[in-house]
Structure formats: structure tokens, C-alpha cells
Amino acid sequence: MALFRPASWTGPRRSILSPWSSPALVVLAVLITFVLTAGPILLAGANPIAAYVEFLVVPVTSGFTAIEVLVSATPILFTGAAVAIAFRAGYWNIGAEGQLLLGAIAGAGVGILVGGLPAIVALPAMVAAGALAGAAWALVPALLRVRFGIDEVVTTLLLNPVALLVVNGLLHGPWRDPVTGFPESPRIAAAAEFPALLPGSRLHLGFVIAMAVVAAAWFVLARTPAGLRLRAVGLSPHGARFAGIDVSGTLLRAALVSGAVAGIAGVSEVAGIQYRLTGGLSPGYGYTGIVVATLGALSMPGVALAALFLGDLTVGASSAARALGIPSQLGAVTQGVLLLTTVGLLALRRNRLTRGIEIGGETVAGDVAAGGLPSAATAISEEGEVEQE
Amino acid sequence: MTAGAVSGSAAPVVELRGITKRFGDLVANDRVDFDVGRGEVHALLGENGAGKTTLMRIVYGLTHPDAGQILVGGRPVAIRSPKDAIAAGIGMVTQHFSLVRPMTVAENVVLGRTGGIRLEMAAAAARVAEASERLGIRVDPGAVVAELSVGEQQRVEILKALARDCRVLILDEPTAVLVPQEVEALFATLRRLLDEGLSVVFISHKLGEVRAISDRVSVLRRGVMVGTVEGSTDERELARMMVGRPMLGIRRTERAGAGPPSTPALSVRDLGAAGVHGLPALVDLSFDVQPGEILGVAGVSGNGQTELVGVLSGMRHPSGGSIVVDGVELAGASPRRLMAAGIGRIPEDRHASLIPDLSVAYNLAIERLDDFRRGGLLDEPAIREHAEQLIARFAIRARPDDRVATLSGGNIQKVLLARVLSRDPRVLVVAQPTRGLDVGATEYVRSELLARRAAGTAVLLVSEDLDELLALADRLIVLYEGRIVGEMRAGDADPEQLGMLMAGRGRAA
Fold first, then answer.
1. B254 in helix, strand or coil?
2. Residue B360 above 60 pLDDT?
3. Other Cβ atoms within 10 Å of B262 Cβ, number
4. I need a labelling partner for A365 at 20 to 30 A (CA). Which of A216, B262, B346, B492 fits?
């Protein structure tokens, strides 16, 4: 997991302008992924080209599936933004999954309780509760990091299964459905359900909130002093501290906001899709958020595109499963290969550019070895320039 | 130079001919010749930045020369990597050890030389114990490296090199991390190894040690080999070779109205700070800087300068003592408080003091973003205008939107200078302000510092460049091992005496 640490952590780093833009790199990653996943698809007895058409093109050819793409993109828009916000600050929150689950618990709890209230009160109360719960789950690792320097990659990651245990404990204990006896919470109040955006579709208010969160995050990062401080801390903690920025406070705030956004993802799934807390609420949306943030080069427009792309792939995988009779897990395989390819290409780009460049007798290549994924820093600076225009 | 060439033993084990290495505009090694004979210690003496380490990195294959030849046993060899160097019988112990700390001594020694599939650890440990015994390098093969003292770790490094059949051992400032007793032990070990025919290249800037162990001494200054003399050469002569040079180009300007001291702008008392390995880096440092005065801090790097600047910049916690500016106690204060108190900081590491991946405009504004906000948002037009003004005033060759990382060293320094000076600091803490800059940028930075002095700022100037200190400073203090070992008016300073102080030989008369 130290994979996600940018080179700048190991010391001063000389940045080199990249000859490959990040979009070109992502397209290349997609092509390589297709070549690599052709093998498993062939083994499953399907034509890879046909499979890719099913994966990527078919979902957007009908209104129904296109809307399903947006539905699939909704939770990972939240978690992608959550992860990207933290990563931009140099805080490696791998715990969006757990924060999402805590948000779902709080959202479901409030949703069950707000029976008599109007939606205009119930919905904000749920969202606020989910955000608070997600932030609270993010608080302890963040405090351990800024106070004692304890690696948040480990602590946030390890809290994810703990959050799942809390969910299961609730569902097998106090919240077990009194009617069916299934390990599911009671259904939330009608007023707490996110309204559908289009009649008869599964697309719900959560998608709008997610896009608003992404837009707000973009605006804060690009246009406010707090956003600039956060970026500065992520790009160079030492330089930021030297300039008088409260690095610990910035990391703490970034961690809490990240947790809050992930928490809202949980509320969105409870109030928009499941209408109750279930054990299978999240098939790893928090982890997919890391993929989304990385593919999106930690920029908010990138996060939006990456979330839609992965949503497309998810819907496509199930339609491919039906049309071609291949396992739907191939969609997840493709996502995984895509992430590894992208990370590999980013590392390769950095390595090729810095190998052998000597600064005062020290090679920067050592930073790469220790650094792994410098995508964040490079991509951000590229976006940073765009933002100034 | 009066120093005549002294030849070594008949056939040098390793010989360098005409080695030249450039880093950009900087010539780190300029046609350097060097050789070391069998059973000989040949010291390479020089100030920091003289090119000693670069030369030895070339021999060890860590850096590649632009020109020149390396001969081993009289035959030219191509050394492309440390692997080639090891194969040629060359070993190197750098200042930063390359040991795997959680592993045992024996594991470290055999690491990288493990052929085959099975690792015969017991046999390896026995071999290491035997070698340790035979060579008189006392370390327990079963000890975990992390638990050893720095001196013991160094012995492991030496053992590691010898275990690879090295015949020429390069020691890069081996005593920098050792306490005096460990230095004695190291020398005893080396003498035993020399009797067995080992050759040693000993890189140092400490005159006493160089004389104690060396057969011959070669002095590098600014990448040029000044001369090679007998190891018994007088310390004054060595100091003169190392630092003594005619003043180049810079004329001293005396401080206008340097009257009796008024209230000091910066007052430091009994300041202490811990360094690496927990050793004290600063010991009871006390000095004052008057308004309109430049106090120069001389010393070979690693004698507490970095820690002093770190503490005065708010980036490092002092272990004791006080720092007072205008009656305000600032020891241990945050960068924000130090800036508010009127301290401007220009540390030696410019890159780390800026945010290289942000634009010039943001870097110029980031210390005081509160002045650049409008309705809670960044006031982009004001940030840009501020940048354009400073770019014009400080002649920075950059546009506001350029990322700092893309600028040249001189322009990066100007960005930092502009950010600091635009706030009119009462006290300026500057370290190595012209290191790595070209002539034009150097001139510019120095003239800005003098202009600050004229405007009444108290300047603390830390520099390894004696010419710079002698040209700019009004008074000098010399740091050696974290202590002030000498203080003098810059006009009275004599390079030879300074060199002796910097090398830890005696106090100012």
C-alpha cells in the first residue's frame, strides 16, 4: 500500500514536466488492459472484441442502461472524491470503505427514526449524520498520524473490516429485521428515501449530491486559500510547514472531510438503493474509490470521468455476462488490471524521466524506488496550471 | 602553488588521470590526477564542495566522468557501476551506511554475495567471525546492526568491503560520525590493514586526522587538484592549501557608521539542539546580531550550521536556550510566529523551502494567504499582481504561472529572496545563499544582502564560502562541532587562521 506514497515524501524532488499527458497515459493503460484481459476472456469462451463492445459501448446505447451507468457511478463518485481529497493533501486514506459503512449505519439509523418528519428535514438529517459518522471513523487514524506519526495507510485499512463487523453485529443483533428475521435492518421511513430523478428508474438524488460534492471539492481546491494550503501540504509538506502552514491541522481536516464524503456515499446507498442497512451494501466501493481517484489523477474532473467510466464497465460486465455467457467477475478483473496498468505506467513515466538525472551527485532515481506512485504530484501540478487560467 | 608533487610507491594500485566532471555549469572535478599505492593512506583534503566526494564516487562507479581515465594495476578499466568497482578490488564506505538495520552483522556482510539456492548462514557467520578475528575488526557476527553504535556499524561496512576482497578502501569522511575514542579505534584498525597491504583513500577536511593517518595528502579546491604533499606536512601549510587563496573579485565594503553596538536585533543565548544519532549538534551557542550588521558563520558543513538555521527557521526544536528578537522570546516558535516577529528565512535548501510544483505566484503569496483573500476565495488578480511586481523588482526570469520547479537555481533563489525581502524582515537568516548559482545571480544575491544591511536589517549569514563571508560579513564566528570556536572582525580575519579554526585546530589567538 506504500504504493501510493509520492516521491516528495522521501525528500526534495525535482519535478520534470511530463511529455505524456495524463489522459494519453490513461488511454494507453486502457489499451494495455484490453490486451492483458483478452486471455481470460478467451478462456471464458468469448470473443474479446465482442466482450469489450459489451463492456464499454453497449451500456450507453440504450436509455435504460445509460441510466444504470449513472447509478453505478454514484457511490464511486463519492468515494473517488473522498480518496482524492485526502490524497491531494498527502493523507493516504485507504479507509473510505469503512467510513462509507459507518455513514450507512448512521444514515439508516436516522432514516428509521425520522418517520413522522417531512423529507426536507429527514434527508438533510440523514446526510449530516452519515457525514459525521464517516468523519468520526476517520478521526482516530488521522489523530494517530498527526500526533504520533503512525502510518495511516495501515490504520485506515485495518479499520475497514472492523466497520464491516459493526454492520454485521448490528444486523445480527439489535437491527435484525423483526418481520423477516433476515440480517437486514428495518426499512427506512418513506420520507427518508432519496427521490428518483426519473420516474421508474433507479437513478436517485444521491447522484446529484455526488456531482455537487465533486464540483464543490473542485471549487474549494482550486479557488480558496484552504484549498491552496491543502494542495501545498500534499505537494511539499516541508515547504508548506516552512511557509507557516499548519500541516498537521490541514492533514486532519482533509482526513475528516474525506471521511465525511465517504460517509455520505453510505447514506446514498441506503437511502437511494437499498432503503435499509444490509451486509452487502458495498461491494468494495471504498476501494474502488482509490481506483477512481488514481485513474482520475486526483483531479475532480478526472474523478468524475473515471467514475463514469468504471460505472460503464460495471454495467457492461453484467450485460456481457448475459449476452456472451462469461462470468460477470471479468468486469472486476478488468478494473483490477486497469488499476495496476495505470499505476505501472505512472511509475514507468517517472522512472524513465528521472533515471540518471543527477543533482549534485545524487540521483533522483532513488526517489522513484522509494516513491512508487508519484502520479498525484505530477497530475496535480498539471491541473493546477489549468486552474490558474 | 609551492606544494611540489610527491610520488607514491612504485606502482600505484589505482590511478586517476585527467578526471573531469561537470554538473551543469559547475565543474566538480577539473582534470584531476590522483593515485594510491599499496599499503598507503592517501588523504584527499578539501573544503565541502571541493569535489572530493564526486571524485571518489567516480572511482566507485556511482557517477560517470565526462573525461579521464581510471587505471587499476596499471591497466585502464571502465567502471560503470559499483559492481565493476568491487570486481576491480575497490571498496567504499560512505558517510551514510548502506546496512540493512534489522539484519545481523553476518547477514549484512554476506548480503549480495550469496550464490546458489541454499543459504548456509551458520557457515557464513563462521566465515565472518573468522575474518573479523583475523583482520582485528571486533564485531559480533550475530549482533543486529540496528543495535550497534555508529562506530561499530562503520566497522561492519569496512568488514563488508574487505569480505569482497577489496584492495583499495575509500573512506568518505569516516570520522564525521564518530566520537574521538572511535576515531582512535578506526585508525588502529586501518594501520593493521595497511600492514597487510590494503590501500586507503581517506577523504576528510580535518587536518589533525589527516596528518595522523596519511602517508600523502592531496588537496582539492574547487574541483582542481592544488597539490600533493607528504602526510607530515605542517598543518598551517595544509590549511593554506585548503582555503588560502587570493580574494577573487569581491571588494569588501565596510559598514557605514559601524559605531558601538546598539540593542541587538537578534540575541541568541545558550542555544542547544540535537543532531543526527542524538549527538548534540549545537552546544551553548550565544551571539548577538546588531541592526545593520552582517554576522558571518564560518565552518565546514556538518558542524551545526544546518541545525542553527533550522532552529532559527522554526523547522527544528532547540533543546535549550533562548532566541530573542525585539524582546520577544522565540525559541521553539513556529515558522508563522517567527515570521510575525520579523525573521526572514532563506535556508540552504531552496527547493524544500518552496513548493516546487506550485506556480511562482502562489509560492510568493503562500506565506500570507490571508492578505490575498476576497470573500473567502483566493484573490487571483491580487496574487498575480503581487507576483508581477516582485518578478520585476527582483529581476526573476519567470512568469507568474510558471511552476517553480521549472526555474533555474538562480531564479528559484530569487523567488525565495523576493518572498522574504518583500516582507521587510528585521532579522534575516541566510544559509549558503549563492551555492550553485552562476556569477550573475551570485552578484545579485550578495548586493541584495548588502542593501538589506544598509537598510538596517540584522543579517546572519551562514556560508561555507570563505570568500563570501570575508567579502560580506562585518563579524565572523566559526562553528566547530556545534560550538563557537572563534570570533573576529571580518576585516582582521586571516584565511589561514580561519582554516585552522574550521578544521578544529586551536582557538583564535
1. coil
2. yes
3. 10
4. B346
Q: Which residue has the higher pLDDT, B407 or B247?
A: B407
**Which strand (E) or helix (H) includes residue B127?**
helix B121-135
Number of H-type helices and E-type strands within chain B = 17, 22
Residue among A270, A272, A228, A267 nearest A250 (CA):
A228
CB contact under 8 A, B355 and A15: no
Query: Rounded distance, CA B441 to CA B178, Å?
Result: 38
Q: Which residue from A224, A388, A389 is facing B376, i.e. has the nearest CB?
A: A224
> Helix crossing, A225-235 with A247-269: angle to 10°?
110
SS3 call for B289: strand
The answer to whether the beta carbons of residues A45 and A177 sit under 8 Å apart is no
Please give the residue of chain B at the shortest CA–CA distance from A219: B377
Nearest CA in chain B to A225: B378
CA A27 to chain centre: 20
- What DSSP line would sit under B251-303, residue for residue? PP-PPTT--S--S-SEEEEEEEEE-GGG-EEEEEEEEEE-TT-EEEEE--TTS
Nearest to B255 by CA among B427, B434, B433, B451: B451
Interface test with B, best of A236, A245, A246 (most B CBs within 10 A): A236
Q: Are strands B199-204 and A358-359 parallel, antiparallel or unpaired?
A: unpaired
Tracing cell 490541514 back to the chain, one arrives at A250
Main-chain dihedrals φ then ψ at residue B217, nearest 5 degrees: -130, 125
pTM: predicted TM-score of the whole model, two decimal places: 0.74
Partner-chain contact B358 A224, CB within 8 Å: no
Q: Do B367 and A381 touch (CB under 8 A)?
A: no
Closest approach of A238 to chain B, Cα-based (Å): 6
Residues of A in contact with B359 (CB under 8 A): 384-385, 388
Query: Are A384 and B359 a contacting pair at CB < 8 A?
Result: yes
Question: Which of B366, B373, B403 has its CB closest to that of A381?
Answer: B403
Query: A2-11, B127-136, B334-343: lowest mean pLDDT where?
Result: A2-11
**What's residue A350's pLDDT?**
65
Q: Which domains does chain A have, with CATH numbers?
A: 19-355+362-388 (1.10.3470)
For residue B184, CA distances in Å to A350, B192, B208, B213, B335 come to 45, 13, 12, 10, 42
Pairwise CA distance, residues B397 & B360, whole Å: 11
Structural domains for chain B: 12-243 (3.40.50.300), 266-358+412-502 (3.40.50.300)
Q: Which residues of A365-377 are buried (b: 16+ CB within 10 A; e: fewer)?
A: bebbeebbbbbbb
Interface contact A88, partner B, CB < 8 A: no
ipTM confidence: 0.80
**Smallest Cα–Cα separation from B348: which of B13, B14, B48, B133?**
B48
Q: Cα dist. A294→A10, A216, A311, B33, B41 in Å?
A: 20, 19, 15, 51, 54
Q: What is the pLDDT along chain A (389 residues), one digit of tens a residue?
A: 343 433 333 333 333 333 345 667 778 888 898 899 888 888 888 888 888 888 888 888 988 899 999 999 999 999 999 999 999 999 999 999 999 999 999 999 999 998 889 999 999 999 999 999 999 999 999 999 999 999 999 999 999 999 999 999 999 999 988 888 889 999 999 999 999 998 888 999 999 999 999 999 999 999 999 999 999 999 999 999 999 999 999 999 999 999 999 999 999 999 999 999 999 999 999 999 998 998 888 999 999 999 999 999 889 888 888 888 888 788 778 878 887 888 788 777 766 554 433 333 333 333 333 333 333 333 333 333 333 32
Pairwise CA distance, residues A80 & B374, whole Å:
30
Amino acid at B209: E
Sheet with B475-480: list strands edge to edge: B343-346, B427-431, B458-462, B294-298, B475-480, B483-489
pLDDT digits (tens, 9 = 90+) for B28-54: 899 999 999 999 999 998 876 688 888
